[in-house]
């Protein structure tokens, strides 16, 4: 009987032969913890998948990796096993709710900063195989601007900054945008305002960040949308079931679906050598050296 890893390899080979589009890389981050970033990432990924796109969630939060916990599944392998060459990229891809595919990170991303050239090349070769296998790879990073998070922000094609209407959350979200900008990097930021009481509060929060970014950084920061402060979200977390699955008709789920729609309106398939996983890896490898 063929194992799952072999099946995945055969699938990506078939897709490559058909000349599939490149995979788009999205990084999700936040200025501070506790804003619901990982919960957003997972449910956003599920909403994209529900519209017919194939999505892979990469848990890149070193200290608090919890995508698997939110789904109530146990991670058998992680990025660590790939970096140690114990497993291939296909071995560490696991399935969670609604068969969403994910890769557990944990301490593995710390090891990325200490790899030899040979190990870096192996990592790049393995991750490159994902190009065309999925439409989107979404990296859920740690809160704040750590060295690891910065690399994912700079290498991704889109970076979604999740914040809430709380003043400290707004300040920290702007701070992370400002720090990246003052380093001289050109990053495609997009805002998501989580836990809003209504659309008015969401718009006011987004405007505060957007206006300051425009005035002091000369940056246009578009807003993808708002997620309602819905009590079903905490209920779903306790049940370890994503709220878009546990409560498909809730206001929070409708909010996420609208966000996914808004993102896809600006999304187009790109089939150039400079896009997708190859571009991400080129940037990442340069940043790691």
UniProtKB/TrEMBL annotation:
It comes from the Bacteria. GO terms for cellular component: cytoplasmic side of plasma membrane; cytosol. GO terms for biological process: negative regulation of cell division. Pfam families: ParA (PF10609). One of its GO terms (molecular function) is ATP hydrolysis activity. The keyword ATP-binding applies. Keywords: ATP-binding, Nucleotide-binding. The keyword ATP-binding applies. InterPro entries: FlhG (IPR033875), MinD_FleN (IPR025501), P-loop_NTPase (IPR027417), ParA/MinD_ATPase (IPR050625), YlxH/NBP35 (IPR033756). PANTHER family: CELLULOSE BIOSYNTHESIS PROTEIN BCSQ-RELATED (PTHR43384:SF4), SEPTUM SITE-DETERMINING PROTEIN MIND HOMOLOG, CHLOROPLASTIC-RELATED (PTHR43384). This is MinD/ParA family protein. It comes from Paenibacillus roseopurpureus.
